[in-house]
Amino acid sequence: MQTRSIELKSGLSKTVLAGICAVGIALALIFAKWAFGHAVAVNAVKPEVTALGVDLAASDPSGHFNFAQQLEKTLLHEDQQRSLAEYESAAALSPHNYIYWLGLARAREQAGNDVLAEGSLRKAEELAPNYSRVQWALGNFLLRRGQRNEGFEKIRKAVAADEAFAAPAAAAAWQIFEGDIQQIHAAVGDSPRINAAIAVLLAGDKRYPEAMDFWRRVSAGGALNDRKAAGQAVYQKLLAGGAYRSAIEVAGDAGLFPDWDVSVGAVSNGGFETGLHSLRDGSHPFSWVVADGSFPRIGQNMDQKRSGTYSLLISFGQGGSGQRTVSQKIGVEPEAGYDLQFYYRSDVATSARLRCDVFSASGASLAGAALPAAGDWTQMKLPISVPANIEGIEIRIGMEGCSANGCTASGNVWFDDLSLSKH
What we know:
This protein is α+β, with helices and mostly antiparallel strands.
């Protein structure tokens, strides 16, 4: 390869070249300084380090914005003032970035300047009129200022663009309109996610029939992709409130349990052919649940059964002290009559009383019987009258009349073929 050289014959040429080199070096140094400052300003996590980066790259809007966010989080008065100034710098340096205007609007509102805050939000909307985040921020600002009509108009646009805003939109309307469903619907709309959010709010307010009306709209619509998440929220509130019948319906609709075999007005696993659960294993409560503890021993038994393969055995063995219950929650119809039927055999010796009891979801005793020793399978039938506004009962098998240390007992008791029939 042939190498060429440039011969500078005049002093002027040498001077020009030297000047170009000097300018190039100066520009490189300026860029290096800016690049270093930018890297520090946008990546630092401590405000004092970020401040150094901002000083080195004063024309970088992202550095000012990051610094403003860090100062905002300290909640110190002097930092809030500096944060506002940094947001203003970011918006001035990059006036077409809607994110900077949103940050500036928040800082101006916190500083008590609602007029300038609204102006910043309007600017963000002008730059990004179809962005849900902008509509949501502007809508909530207007609500805080009492401008409900336009505020909810913006919120409806935000929900239409991103249904992740549906639940907080419904919650905001619920608070403003104090649970008035008609006004809430008029304010935020009637989408599947809005209805799901309203169902959660109604269930939390113990308005269970209304909650179920809204849940059924969601379930029938078939358009809610995350019905399981919404159903879980509704289900938990219904369960906590003792609305077992409704909770069972929601759980079935939402597919909350893959092996769901629960029906309203029926005992699940009445023959104990499938496993039992503890209070801590995360299973649904509409199956047999065994209280924590080690005495007495409780489990399936193949040696003594009336039908099928297994029965339930509660074994006190040669004797000991303790107490554990076996229970199951059941959804029932309010004001309905049922018969709980089961078979048992027992050779338990104890000074306490072995019992089977039925309680309402509110804790009231509905039926019960002591279970004396029985050498062969013995049938028991407990009539149950469900009170009005009650849609859940609980069967409990355990001991009554125990000391503070539990019941002293020996022997075994078996249960099989529990069933509930409506009459």
